[in-house]
Amino acid sequence: MMRSRSDRWSIWRMGGIVGMAVTGLLAAHLAIAQDESYAAPRLPGTDHPDLNGIWQSFTTANWDLQDHGADAGPFPRQLGVWGAQPPGQSIVLGGEIPYRPEALAKKQRNFSERLVVDHDNVNTVGDPEAKCYLPGVPRATYMPFPFQIIQSTDRVIIAYQFASASRTIPVGGTSEAPVDSWMGWSNGHWDGDTLVVDVAGFNDLSWLDRAGNYHSAALRVEERYTPMSPYHLQYEATITDPEVFTRPWTIRFPLYRRVEKNLRLLEFKCVDLAEAYVYGGLVEDEGGAR
Amino acid sequence: MRQRLCSTGMAVVALCCLCGGSTAVAGQGAQTDNGYATPRTPWGDPDLQGMWDTRTYTPFERPADFGTREFMTEDEVAERERLGLRRVISDDDDDAVAQELVQQDVTRYARSDAPDDGRPGYRIAGAEYNAFWSSDPTAPPLSLRTSQIVDPPDGRLPPLTARTLDTWGAREELRSGRSQADDWEDRGLSERCITRNGLPGEMLGSSQQPLKELVQAPGVVSIVMPYGYVRVIAVSADREDMLAPLGSTIRQWNGDSRGYWDGDTLVVETANFKETVVNAVPAHGGPFGGSSHVHYYPGDGQTLRLTERFRRIADNTLEYQYTVEDPEVFVEVFSTVNYFTLDPWAVEGNQDRLFEYACHEHNYGMVNAIRAARVDRDWALGEAAREASIRRRELGEKREQLREWVDTRDAAR
Asked: What predicted TM-score, i.e. pTM, was given to this entire model?
């Protein structure tokens, strides 16, 4: 009755104890070797590749989508290099995000106020990540946390570890967002072996990274998930938002399969970890009742 | 417990809803084969997928009148219908519902112009908010069950242990002298947007959030919860092949769930619950009582074991059983049975997904609560004391329940 995870996984059973770094290197080599000729196993009952699994990106794009050097981070005196920004190359094709000139000023203000908590504007000032707010799309994909794709015959669920965020992606057919949301409204379809997800219906509250890159409620994202080997997917997202950018622009990076034995998506339901940050200022005035 | 269910051999007869809607119903003897052939996914697992209405009108604990009787007669159900014990909120007349909401808004605004009569929250009528969020054109089916709890046989929640009652008392001591919102931890987990009711309570729907969506992949069952997360459960072909349990130092608000197939039944075992999660008792109010704003699960989640069983017993019906074992907290194990029905609104293509919850992201209420408690701390202290007095009374009642249970047990020996 129950198919065990079938032949295609036998290779990772053997390699189950291979560490993430090694897997990453392996996947990178496979990418070069196999490129677009890779034929992914099909999800039973469908003609589509099986994208099921726990995946994670390994970029530093959550710090900054664009080129960024090593930096001390916001609290070097308190945190040492725990809080430091690692260096990383841009994941934006062409390197630069094409901001409208007036929009760039807001990005810079976002950065300078990234760790400001304003209780009268609690969800419009400061990086939402620090407050454990839903990360939005595509940021959820390059947060340094794993996520799980649950692919059935006509829908895909993506469960993200960060903030227990999730998306439901009906595949085939299109519906309109009833109202704006943080994670947007996703509609999927297949383009060959690529799962294409059109996401719209965003609010204007999520950010794209800690550098203050942002979007408006006019944002549309087209994501493309393409299997490149048993261990990695190519991820691409094209961002269109005429209120903030002069033209559509695209980010691209691989997603790596997490292959550790006995792995599951643990909970990072971070609200209780963020409350002192979000609300602490409200109680400090009296020396703290805590 | 399973043996007992099996031995009932009772069939719950289909029952037509009196109030519009096409509902029929749920149930059958739990372990008897009703001849239903569970559909399969293309990869061969029992197919439990769909948008399930998880509400129930069956009381959690059995009303004393029914004694140890597990099922009502149809006459008794008809009588309850007549008395309006089951209400349907909408009659599918969208215009009328909309008109009523508008009227409620008008009334609310009219009230907001009235002079402040000194009552806190005097501008908020309440009903308009609830009516809006609760409107739902469908009604869940009735079961003939007299209570969700089927074990112990009296259908009542087992008493809390003496040790737990002592812990509860100690927590009350620690809380004394705090206001309703000296800080965020004085509010409940639901208001803090951490968990709604916790597991297994929030597996059952409310009028606000009736639905759960089950989506399967090979080796995985996911349950999209309406309260901002997805339960992702690795499911093996049998119990021996389940994922190894998590180490005891990893504790999660919703525990760690691992599943396996027992024939056509999905069995999910959950442990590693975080301390102070409001779970184990459905709906508002854990063992600490719903009247208070702080009702933590009284145990250390370390010893809590939840076992759930999902079985499709008809195309549109999922039988849902769970068993709670926590010897530190409850004097006995208890088990419940409920029935989920495929949501006809979704089946007709009118709702293709659950909408984002985003509770914490818009929790202006927490900022306001903390500020308000500082604007008038005496009032906030007074309210906290009033709530504490209610909890103390509940604590006394729980101690009494335990005494009665012990007496009955000893008498039976």
From this structure: 0.84
CA B189 to CA A255: how far, in whole Å? Answer: 34
Placement of tokens 């759930």 in the chain: B308
Structural domain of B201: 2-12+40-76+141-412
A265 to chain B: nearest residue by CA?
A: B232
Smallest Cα–Cα separation from A91: which of A61, A111, A68, A56?
A: A61
Q: Which residue, chain included where needed, has tokens 């719950």? A: B12
Q: Which value does ipTM take for this structure? A: 0.87
DSSP A202: B
B353 touches chain A (CB under 8 A): yes
Q: Which pLDDT tens digit goes with each residue over B102-119? A: 565 566 555 555 555 554
Residues B194 and B129 in one domain: no
CA distances in angstroms from A77 to A84, A87, A129, A141, A278, listed in the order given: 11, 20, 22, 31, 21
pLDDT band of residue B100 (cuts 50, 70, 90) is: low
B34 part of a folded domain: no
Q: How far apart are CA A17 and CA B288, in angstroms?
A: 45
Same domain, B239 and B280: yes
Nearest by CB: A166 against B42, B224, B254: B224
Query: Nearest Cα to A182, choosing from A210, A163, A156, A157?
Result: A163
Selected residues 80-99 of chain B with any CB under 8 Å from a CB in chain A: none
Q: In the structure encoding, which two tokens stand for residue A45, read together? A: 């009952």
Three-class secondary structure of residue B53 per DSSP:
strand
